Every structure is written in C-alpha cells, then in structure tokens.
Automatic annotation (TrEMBL):
This is Lipopolysaccharide biosynthesis protein. It comes from the Bacteria. The lineage of its organism: Bacteria, Pseudomonadati, Thermodesulfobacteriota, Syntrophobacteria, Syntrophobacterales. It is found in: Cell membrane. CDD domains: MATE_tuaB_like (cd13127). Belongs to the polysaccharide synthase family. Keywords: Cell membrane, Membrane, Transmembrane, Transmembrane helix. One of its GO terms (cellular component) is plasma membrane.
Length: 487
C-alpha cells in the first residue's frame, strides 16, 4: 500500500474509532449521572488537581522527545522506558502519601482513600508511556484508536456496573484503574517492543534537554487549566464543582474528538519536515482550516441547543450547568485551534519558547479565576473566557512568527467558518422562539431535532456559498500534504 493510501486509510479508521469512542463515553455518562450525584463527581474532581499534576511528572515529557527526535535507537527507548517507570512509581508513592493532606484541605475525609487507590494509575502508566509514544512516532494511529476504544469500553462497563451496585464515587475510581490496566497488554502487544535492562545517562540527558521544557510547560499549563477546579472546590464546595466539572467535560469531549484526531498526526508529520518552513506553513494552515470547519459550528450548535439537551439527556438536576456550558463552548471554539500552538512549537524544536509562554500567561489565568469567584461558577467561566480570548491572539501571533506566517493569513483561514457558525447561531436562536411556541417543552425530543436540523441546514448552506472551493482544498489537500511530508 502506498504512503498516501496508508494515511487516508488510517485517518478513516481513526475517525471511525473516535466516533465510536465518543458514543461509548456519552452512553456511559448517561448511566453514571443518573446513578451518581453531583457530590460524587465533585469528590473525584477535587482529586483532579493532584492527580493531573502527578501525571505531568510521571511522563517527564519524554514522549514528546521520542516523537520529535529525527533518529532514535533501542537504547534511547529503553532509557526512556526505565526513566518513565521509575518516575511513575515515585509519583504513586508521593500521591498516596498526600491523600490525608487533600482530605484536610477540602474538609472531606473520603478523599484520603480515593487518592491512595487512584495513585496506582501512575505506576501502570509508567509501563506504557514509551510504547504509546513509539506508536505515535510510527504514525500507527489506527492501532492507537482501536486501543483507546477497547480500553474505554472495558473501563466504562466497569464503572457502570459499580455505579449500578451502589458503589458511588468508587465506581469512578474503578473506571480509572481499569483503563490503566487494560491499556497495558494492548500497547505492549501492538508496539511489539520489549525494553532491555539498559539505561544510558548520555541518552537520557539528550532526551531530557528537550523534554524538560515540555515538562515545565505541561506543569504550568496544568495549573492554568485546573486552577478553577481547585478554587471552586475550596470556596464553593463539591456540588458547585461537580456542576462546573460536568459542564467542562461535556464541552471538552467532542472538542477532543476533532482537535485530537487532526493534531495527533500533525506533530510527527511536522517534526519530519521541521526545516522546510513553507511546507510546515501549508500543512498547518490546512489543519486549522479542517479543525475550524468542524469545531466552530459544533461549539456554536451546542451553545444554542444546550438548554434542551442537558435536561433531556442528563436530567433536570443538571440544568444549572447550562450557563456555564454555554460560556465554555465559546472557549472551546478558541481552544480547538489553540491546541495547535504547542504542536508547532515542539515540532520546530522550540519547547523553550512554549515553556516561557505558559509562564507568562499563568498569573493572568489565576487572577481571572479569583476575580470571577464572587459571581459563582458562572463568573469563573466568564473570567476564564476573557483571558482565553486575549491569550489566544497573543500566543498565535508569537507562534506564527516561528514559521514565518502572517497573522492575516492565519485569521483568513478561520474567517469563513466563524462567520458561517455565527449566522447559524443567530438563525437558530431566533427561530427557537417560534419552534418552542409551536411544540412546547413537553415535546423536547422533537424540538431538539428541529433545532439541530435547522442549524445543520443553515451552516452547510452558508459554508457552501462562502467557501465552496476551500472546503475541497482543506479536506483533500491536507491528506496529500501529510503524505508528502513523510516522504
């Protein structure tokens, strides 16, 4: 099979697996939110800050170094494996010991046990991070997608079964542990690589000279992304945090489906052609075009129909999450494109600049969280949205200079999807007044179907008029350029 056909075939399988994964996640959430309370989700969300921080250190940033490096041998991989495993075990012990401190901080005794048990995922993760990075380096995205699918299916079944038996928040812990255990045989079996009992300090130093900036960026960026959980959990309580975290994750999952699918293959491809700025620019512009064509209307559509979807699918007790979810949808549209900043910088061997940028924006993000606190979770979401917009413009301006890309050319790629999405939102919003009056709230499924159909029709019509030629170029040109980049 030719390289072009491999890329196209792999992308098709990857998208199919990702769609299936999202369906599993949605179905799982529908069961879990009916058996579990916001307080159960809030308790798990309280652990996110500590566990997410631990994951940053458990990885050491070595995965990105393995993917970015042009040439790598077995000694590099074995060194990375033992370093990751050692870090994972150390983090497991450290996190388990910090469980009582978490319980004291949030004034919830249950957190001590939750943290101790869930810390095992770090040790298990140390056994698989190198194999996962190796498969990404090989651009084996079809295999990785199927692994993610099978792991999520198995872990979701464990979580649902535990929740049905009345285990409460422990069902969410069990789902997490199961995912770590299930991924181990799949990744080792597909990668077909076994580490040797060798560790080279020189190889580690070479890898870490790149990954230490990735580690620093991930560390600072983690606090920026999870500071809201920490502040809301401390000052507003578990129930408020559970609602906020529910809204954030509901927004994030469909966003990850698109951005992750495109961005996952973008990093190794750009790393291979990092010295060819013209080709990097071309692939990058086509990538953000594809992302925005899908995520902008997706986020806009979710914003307009969320007042109907959330109570219908998840129950009336989650209705208070609607305003937070709507604000975060607008943030998500920005982040869908903003995630490519790190990809471009790392592929250009500028992990140092990525680290400096995250350090710079960190105080502004935390100030926003604190400034919005007096207005509750809605105020925190609004403050976060304002900072996200400002930083989105600054970060892209700095990153585009690295690949000699003008801000005008960058924004032009996003203009037509943004305009088409805005028109769709306005039409559906005002049409909803008529639709709601005709059908009534007792016919929510039909009302929801009417709004979705109207939104899809409006967006597709406007998009086809505004950039019919660009649609073809964006989707078909990206596959061809990625193929050429690998030659």
């Amino acid at each position: 099979m030719s390289l072009i056909r491999q890329i196209i075939s792999g992308a098709a399988w990857n998208i199919g697996a990702q769609v299936s994964s999202q369906v599993i996640s949605l179905v799982s959430m529908m069961f879990l939110v009916r058996w579990l309370s916001p307080d159960d989700f809030g308790l798990i969300a309280m652990c996110v800050v500590l566990k997410g921080l631990a994951f940053v250190f458990a990885n050491l940033g070595l995965s990105a170094a393995i993917i970015q490096k042009k040439e790598i041998d077995a000694l590099y991989l074995s060194t990375a494996f033992w370093a990751s495993l050692g870090a994972g075990i150390a983090v497991t012990v450290t996190v388990a010991a910090l469980g009582p401190a978490m319980a004291w901080f949030f004034q919830r005794s249950e957190l001590s046990g939750i943290v101790a048990v869930s810390s095992l995922t770090f040790a298990f993760g140390g056994l698989t991070t190198t194999h996962h990075a190796l498969l990404e380096r090989r651009m084996a995205f079809r295999s990785l997608s199927f692994i993610d699918l099978f792991v999520q299916l198995g872990a979701s079944l464990v979580g649902i079964a535990a929740a049905a038996q009345g285990y409460g928040y422990w069902s969410l812990v069990g789902r997490e542990i199961s995912a770590s255990l299930l991924s181990l045989p799949f990744l080792w079996g597909v990668a077909r690589w076994v580490p040797r009992f060798r560790f080279c300090r020189r190889r580690f130093k070479d890898l870490f000279s790149f990954s230490m900036y990735v580690l620093g960026s991930n560390l600072v960026n983690f606090f920026n992304r999870n500071g809201d959980n920490l502040i809301i959990g401390k000052f507003l309580g578990a129930s408020a945090l559970g609602i906020y975290d529910f809204a954030y994750n509901l927004m994030l999952k469909p966003l990850q489906y698109i951005s992750f699918t495109v961005g996952r293959s973008l990093f190794p491809a750009l790393s291979q052609i990092q010295t060819d700025k013209a080709q990097v620019r071309d692939i990058y512009l086509k990538s953000i075009k594809v992302i925005s064509l899908i995520t902008f209307p997706m986020m806009g559509g979710m914003w307009t129909i969320s007042p109907n979807v959330i109570p219908l699918v998840f129950g009336e007790k989650w209705l208070s999450a609607v305003p937070v979810f709507q604000i975060l949808c607008l943030v998500g549209a920005l982040q869908s494109v903003g995630t490519t900043v790190g990809t471009v910088l790392l592929s250009q061997d500028r992990s140092d600049l990525a680290f400096k940028m995250t350090i710079f924006v960190s105080p502004f993000v935390w100030f926003a969280f604190l400034a919005g606190l007096p207005w509750g979770i809605v105020g925190v979401a609004k403050a976060y949205a304002i900072v996200s917009l400002c930083w989105w413009l600054v970060s892209h301006s700095l990153t585009n200079r690295i690949i000699d890309l003008s801000m005008k050319s960058f924004l032009l790629q996003l203009a037509s999807p943004a305009c088409a999405s805005a028109i769709m939102m306005v039409v559906v919003k005002y049409a909803s007044i008529y639709i709601d009056g005709q059908m009534g709230l007792n016919e929510l499924p039909l009302l929801l179907g009417a709004k979705i159909s109207l939104g899809a029709f409006v967006y597709c019509s406007v998009a086809s008029i505004m950039h019919r030629r660009q649609l073809s170029i964006a989707f078909h040109g990206l596959s061809a350029k990625l193929a050429l980049a690998r030659k």
